[in-house]
């Protein structure tokens, strides 16, 4: 047995051999993420699971948590685990403001490298075939068609562990002329600290991030959707469409005038505004609780705000 401390609180789980292979029920109790056919999901967010992270009905919770870009800490016996909230990879990228370079194939297998677009503004967007954001592809096509003469490129990245065939239909229906790439290993998500789709990043002509990952004008109006008819109220639709249009107008302004690009300090602060605490990689339960008590804040706040440095 092991104890897991996270924003969910303190949970006792079945684990052994100093590893955190958990049942789906234990993962849900410890993290709030639920096992579904799409992967592990929390609300409307789903993260696919690699085959090597599953065995005998259990899931490698440590590997999953690190995949989200979050820190993991355990004691020397492997019986006490801390699943913190952070974005270490994104923080590193934002520290230098340079967009991490990546090479991915398009739907015909031809590789495309991000750095080859230097001299152009780049709108990098992630999506998945199981997400409603697949309907954004024609929207990005209209945006690209309107701005293609202004040294501008859209890159849509399909986060598809199952392969390109599951996303191809949506690209073809959108008649997309911009770069449509496939990321079966979720490399973009790892490099840019993304844990959901859709996420968009603005990159300037010199390869610098001028707006870090954001939800691309998406709203939470879908939470009020009628689950029977799968429709939303007219007033919610108006608000949703207005928010999306506001975002698209902002992208156009940025491409044409440079407006809405965040200054470097602001970009850094989004990824690096953390308080830091050093916890030894081999830490006993009593000492861990003592440090939490000494922090004078409750544990969920601690793990949300601190990047825990350990194993």
Overview of this structure, please?
This protein has 311 residues and is an alpha+beta fold. It has two domains: 2-86 and 274-309, no CATH class; 89-266, 3-Layer(aba) Sandwich (Glutaredoxin). The chain has helices at residues 24-31, 61-67, 88-96, 137-147, 168-174, 187-192, 234-257, 264-272, 285-294, 299-305; strands at 2-6, 9-13, 21-22, 34-36, 39-42, 45-47, 54-55, 58-60, 72-74, 80-83, 103-105, 111-113, 121-127, 152-158, 179-182, 199-203, 209-214, 275-278, 306-309. The strands form six sheets. It has a five-stranded mixed sheet. The chain has a four-stranded mixed sheet with strand order 2-1-10-9. Strands 3-8-7 form a three-stranded antiparallel sheet. A hairpin with a 2-residue loop joins strand 1 and strand 2. Helix 3 packs antiparallel against helix 8 and helix 4 (137-147) crosses helix 5 (168-174). The longest helix is centred in the last third of the chain and has 24 residues, at 234-257. The chain is globular, with a radius of gyration of 21 Å. The two termini are 20 Å apart. The relative contact order is 0.14.
